[in-house]
Specification:
By secondary structure, this protein is mainly β. It has one helix and 24 strands. The strands form eight sheets. It has a six-stranded antiparallel β-barrel with strand order 1-4-5-8-9-12. It has a six-stranded antiparallel barrel with strand order 13-16-17-20-21-24. Strands 2-3 form a two-stranded antiparallel ribbon. The chain is elongated and about 80 Å long.
């Protein structure tokens, strides 16, 4: 007969404790997993909320927008009604989306729209395909279908416009509607005025505006209290401000090759001394020694002069450059007698000058 095996309480205890430990470890793991899930949810919730808030804004009839081309320029309209691709400036890129039927709802792809420029006239296509903003009424030749997608049109969408002749195409020399297919030239990004991210129109400097001249060492041409021209660091006042004028009473844009006259902050005209060829501003009259030919630093530059262009000032005796003279660095003509980096000055417009 087999002998029965009896287990004592002392032998049962370790087994029970081992089971309790396993149960406790399991519960700890479950609690840790729950904490991790809570952390992940708490971290992703704000992101999901932001994604929900970042909804597109629908385009509505009657809204004024900008239409940026694939070259980061804009459809612009001047006061004469000429439409061209250019940088934006003073609202010339504002285009109003108008409903021919007077709708006020959101615009959908396939809708017929009219486009109004900042001059208050509608875009109109002539029989030749040329488009201008000169129509005072909305007719068949001044309406377009807005295409490029499906559903509602949103701010930030790229769209194209089509009439009976073809797709609206804007270039630097004008606008037409002769394209039979769509490429980069017929796609326009819808934006909002005041939020432009494309190119700003670079307007040339005008006669009468105030500028500074600084060399490549960031030293500024300036007139001190004696009327002497020196080249030093940026002054605290307006000693480095010069009004650009013309002895021939020219107006409008300054072009390379023009002869200019500079009036300093003390109201005197800048001229070159005959004895030591140093620049000064002590005369109230304009003479031959007060005129400078404005040239481009890169050579025979042509066209309008723009702010932040590197230029060369050439007097009758030669090019203006900075030369140590006595205890100062004076602005003197023709010490070297040839063009070099020392005769190049950065010409910058001052917007808030009181000259």
């Amino acid at each position: 007969m087999a002998r029965p095996v009896y287990t004592t309480l002392e032998e049962e205890a370790p087994k029970r404790m081992s089971g309790y430990r396993k149960a406790a470890a399991f519960m700890t793991a479950v609690a840790l997993a729950a904490c991790l899930v809570a952390v992940v949810v708490s971290q992703t919730a704000p992101t999901q909320e932001l994604a929900k808030k970042a909804k597109s804004t629908p385009l509505k009839f009657g809204q004024t927008v900008t239409l940026m081309t694939g070259y980061n320029e804009y459809i612009t309209v001047d006061n004469t009604g000429k439409i061209s691709m250019a940088g934006y400036d003073e609202g010339n890129d504002a285009v109003k989306i108008v409903s021919p039927k007077g709708k006020k709802a959101a615009v959908k792809y396939g809708d017929t729209v009219a486009l109004m420029g900042r001059n208050g006239k509608y875009f109109v296509a002539r029989y030749s395909g040329k488009v201008t903003a000169r129509s005072t009424i909305i007719a068949k030749d001044s309406t377009w279908k807005i295409l490029g997608g499906s559903g509602g049109v949103m701010i930030g969408d790229r769209v194209n416009f089509k009439d009976e002749f073809g797709y609206l195409t804007v270039d630097e020399d004008g606008c037409n509607t002769l394209a039979s297919s769509v490429n980069v030239m017929q796609k326009y990004l819808i934006g909002l005025p005041g939020q432009e991210s494309g190119l700003h129109q670079a307007n040339g400097l005008l006669y009468g505006e105030v500028v500074t001249f600084s060399n490549r060492d960031m030293q500024f041409l300036q007139i001190d209290h004696n009327g002497w021209a020196t080249v030093h660091g940026h002054p605290d006042g307006n000693w480095d401000h010069f009004a650009v004028l013309s002895n021939e009473h020219r107006e409008g844009h300054i072009s390379y090759g023009d002869r200019i006259v500079l009036r300093a902050h003390n109201g005197r005209f800048v001229s070159i001394r005959e004895d030591n060829r140093a620049m000064e501003a002590v005369s109230r009259a304009i003479t031959d020694e007060s005129q400078f030919e404005l040239l481009g630093a890169a050579g025979a530059s042509t066209g309008y002069v723009h702010s932040r262009d590197f230029v060369v000032l050439k007097a009758a005796e030669g090019f203006l450059e900075a030369v140590p003279l006595g205890g100062d660095i004076r602005a003197v003509t023709a010490p070297s007698g040839r063009r070099n980096p020392n005769v190049e000055f950065l010409m910058t417009k001052i917007w808030d000058s009181t000259l």
